Hints:
The structure is a homodimer. By secondary structure, chain A is of the alpha/beta class. Chain A has 2 domains: about 170 residues, Rossmann fold (3-Layer(aba) Sandwich), CATH 3.40.50.1970; about 200 residues, Up-down Bundle (Dehydroquinate synthase-like, alpha domain). In chain A, the strands form 2 sheets. Chain A has a 6-stranded parallel β-sheet with strand order 1-8-5-4-2-3, with helices on both faces. In chain A, strands 6-7 form a two-stranded antiparallel sheet. In chain A, β6 and β7 form a beta hairpin. The radius of gyration of chain A is 20 Å and the shape is globular. Chain A starts with a strand and ends with a helix. The relative contact order of chain A is 0.11. The mean pLDDT of chain A is about 95. The interface between A and B is large, with 42 and 42 residues.
Amino acid sequence: MNNFELYNPTKIIFGKGEIQKIKNEIPKDAKVLMLFGGGSIKKNGIYEQVKDALGEYDWMEFGGIPPNPEYEVLLKALEVIKKENITYLLAVGGGSVIDGTKFLSSASLYKGDEPWDILAKKIKTDKGMPFGTVLTLPATGSEMNSGAVVTRKETQEKYGMGGPGLFPQFSILDPSVVSSIPERQIANGLADSFTHVLEQYMTYPVDAKLQDRFAESILSSILETAPLIMEDTSDYKSAANFMWNCTMALNGLIQKGVPNDWAIHAIGHELTAFYGIDHARTLAILTKSHYTYNLKSKQAKLAQCAERVFGITEGDEQEKAEQCIEAIEEFFLSLGIGTSLSSYTKEYEGTAQKIAERFTERGWTGIGEHGKLTPNDVEQIVEMSY
Amino acid sequence: MNNFELYNPTKIIFGKGEIQKIKNEIPKDAKVLMLFGGGSIKKNGIYEQVKDALGEYDWMEFGGIPPNPEYEVLLKALEVIKKENITYLLAVGGGSVIDGTKFLSSASLYKGDEPWDILAKKIKTDKGMPFGTVLTLPATGSEMNSGAVVTRKETQEKYGMGGPGLFPQFSILDPSVVSSIPERQIANGLADSFTHVLEQYMTYPVDAKLQDRFAESILSSILETAPLIMEDTSDYKSAANFMWNCTMALNGLIQKGVPNDWAIHAIGHELTAFYGIDHARTLAILTKSHYTYNLKSKQAKLAQCAERVFGITEGDEQEKAEQCIEAIEEFFLSLGIGTSLSSYTKEYEGTAQKIAERFTERGWTGIGEHGKLTPNDVEQIVEMSY
């Protein structure tokens, strides 16, 4: 097991009817800005519940944060925060709204001239404006971690950011919200959380027995929950399992003490930046080719996953590893998620080269758990995913 | 899944050579009281490491906190804290030292006349004096939770306490410390952590898929690690797994959203109070009789554990459940831990009645996950354990 530090002060409030507890968590003298996305919360009743809970506060709202939260839109919210002397942010939404709120938490206390530097220069945020979240779309785990991803439309760039100052102070997870989520987004949440676990697990063994078993637990639980929640989003029990799986998949716990990969995400972000493909679907596009290209270095863990998660008992280690890759692809396909780039865009030619060039420009010369995947490797992985 | 709240702000610093990081965590202007037990830390080098890390601080020490931390001893430490205007506590030890430090954290800010009331009247601690820990004996999980157990020798009483103000600010877990722990205490740590998981898992199903799988992961990991660390305490890899298993077994995560039992602990504390039997061993004494007595209500989870943890595939649900109870007993015996009260004391006659009377006096008329075990049930469970 590698040395690690684990710190996660986010308070999770989980369950039916808990949105009203917002008022126990936000200081009474706060000036609150509620942030949300395209307005679905006004149709499914969540907006009203939040409004009721905020009853006695001095609060305002800022809607319209788009999927893959855009820097340009966030700058408008930042203006509101500064002009109105906002002191507390409340994200009501999925990963995009929460990630956007994290950027705003950081940017509103940022002393530099250009907030874009927080992203472009990877400035770690040690202190942000306090914020809480009401999760409406399980997927990214952003409700219980300190990372965020922000997109800049004009330059087709998508960058990560984070720091110990960016944990939500609280997150309310009411699984009832799942009943109104469209099937496409349920599928995305399942694929996204599944791949989050893979990025932290499918590397090489370091005899971290519990981390391995926890990761396998989340994978198994997602596989078990997926058909149930895809069949009936109003099944509360499955919604609760779906929601808790997604949070635990990326709240920092399973990544501690073990090598991490994150190459699929690094490459996938480019597919979203270029083509606007849903984040989760970019991951499904790249997983098979990444694991096949790096079969040798990932073989031991792929075979372990084959046995413990998919119950595959036949074959030697390499054969089990190959069957694991197939089983993962089958899972994505079972969700109605295409696993090749060509199923999303006809203009895929040249994508591999463009991404490799970008990585070279940025000096990303070694990604993956060994830090050894070059832009040339990345080019081949993307080509294999056409 | 039941509604739940999860909050755990303790920062874990895990790994070889990390004790020196104490100085990154304690404020420079703190006046520190270092607390420890019987002095084994002066033999195994940990005292020196802590002393080096505290180099520039204004600090004092208080040694001699005994196993099952005694109220009388803690009161002496409390005097020192008040007289010397201590502002930060540093527990260097196992569960007893850390639990004692939690009591002191609470008592040093307590406004009432009689600190014993914190225990006897179950006063929740919302704010305590800040403290950190250096764990030297993996077992109780106290390094990452907000609970403690304190004993009062003169009245043979053992009480729990806790509250959100009693999380360590940081805990340093260096698995190297395991190499100097006597076999008896390694065995205790394995049995203690195993039973902690059981208390949070062996109840009745509420379709909490991930909580179940996480609990099973810890049980499996303990079973896998036990023979390795019993064989060779200087095996760092196994020491690291042992240590992380113990922490995760009782840091609050797996108990959220599911029913909890804790009857074994409630009864076991009495065996320690009466006979001074090691805490972990009292749990091993009671587990089989408790599960056998309550077989029907626990059968589904016992059978699930049989299948997933012990690989038992033969028999119907009841038969699997019974085999699970046998397998758990075999595990305790494999550690050299006796599973009947008579293997610890010859004066066991009347114990069941004495414990039942105490529970009646305290008004504990319904313990266990259903809140339905009466003092009469407790009496029968203890009798079955003779």
